[in-house]
Structure to design on (182 residues):
C-alpha cells in the first residue's frame, strides 16, 4: 500500500485557506493554557457539537483532558498576533494577552482582542487519531461578533476581503506565518 508522505499531506491541506482558532483551557495548577489550531469543524447543531484536532504532543492537551472543558476562539483579521503567540512554545502564552474567565462553570479563558467568535465547550469525547487527538465538545455558550476572519493558507495569514459576517469576496494580503498546527 502506498502512503502519502507528511510533507505531501501538509502541502495538500495547506493549499486551501482555513479559518484559524485558538483553543484555551485551564491547567491543574490554575494557569491558563492554549494552542493555535486550524483543524476544527462543526459536527451537529442539535445537540451543538464541534470537533477540534490537537497534536498529541501539545503541552495544552493534558490540561484540556483533565479539565474536560475548553473554549474555541475563531480569530478575526486582527487576530494574527494571537495566532502567533499560541502557535509558539512559550511557557506563558497568556503574558500580555487580554482574557477573562468564561461564563460557563468551567471558567476557561475567553480571549478579548482579535476574536470574531468564541464557544465554551464541555469535552464529551477524546479519540486518538494518528499523531493527533480528536476532541468532541458540546457548545455551552457561544458569541459571534460582526468581524472579518483571518485565514491561513500555505504558511501565510490572509485577511478576508469580504464583508463582516460572510461576504462573498476572497482572501487577500499575505502575511507569512510559521508554526500553525492542528
Amino acid at each position: 500500500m502506498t502512503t502519502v508522505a507528511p510533507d505531501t499531506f501538509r502541502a495538500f491541506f495547506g493549499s486551501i485557506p482555513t479559518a484559524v482558532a485558538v483553543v484555551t483551557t485551564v491547567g491543574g495548577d490554575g494557569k491558563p493554557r492554549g494552542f493555535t489550531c486550524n483543524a476544527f469543524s462543526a459536527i451537529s447543531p442539535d445537540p451543538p457539537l464541534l470537533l477540534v484536532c490537537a497534536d498529541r504532543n501539545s503541552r495544552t492537551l493534558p490540561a484540556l483532558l483533565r479539565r474536560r472543558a475548553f473554549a474555541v476562539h475563531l480569530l478575526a483579521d486582527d487576530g494574527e498576533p494571537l495566532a502567533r503567540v499560541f502557535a509558539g512554545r512559550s511557557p506563558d502564552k497568556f503574558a500580555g494577552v487580554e482574557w477573562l474567565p468564561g461564563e460557563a462553570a468551567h471558567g476557561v479563558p475567553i480571549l478579548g482582542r482579535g476574536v470574531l467568535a468564541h464557544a465554551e465547550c464541555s469535552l464529551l469525547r477524546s479519540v486518538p487519531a494518528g499523531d493527533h487527538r480528536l476532541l468532541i465538545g458540546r457548545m455551552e455558550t457561544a458569541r459571534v461578533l460582526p468581524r472579518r476572519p483571518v485565514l491561513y493558507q500555505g504558511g501565510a495569514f490572509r485577511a478576508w476581503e469580504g464583508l463582516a459576517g460572510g461576504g462573498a469576496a476572497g482572501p487577500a494580503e499575505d502575511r507569512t506565518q510559521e508554526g500553525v498546527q492542528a
Residues 23 and 90 are 15 Å apart (CA to CA).
